[in-house]
Amino acid sequence: MEKINVAQKLSSFSDYFNPRIVGELNGQHVKLVKFQGEFIWHHHDNEDELFYVVKGSFDMFLRDKTITINAGEFLVVPRGIEHKPVAR
Rounded to whole angstroms, how far apart are CA atoms 77 and 48? Predict the structure, then answer.
């Protein structure tokens, strides 16, 4: 068991929309990713997805609304829900 320094892990890569696995919790991966621009519309059949913003902000497009997530905030997208993250 080792602690994870999020800032250190984030500084170790510079590409976007390429998640890095930094841990595991109850059989699910804990991932870090940097966003820039638009990702594709997609959904996950088997798992919910948590988005926690460390720095900056982004918009999560859902089919019926858009939610802005700022630094220090998080959003859980339930499995099966189509979503598209966009960071300007």
Answer: 6
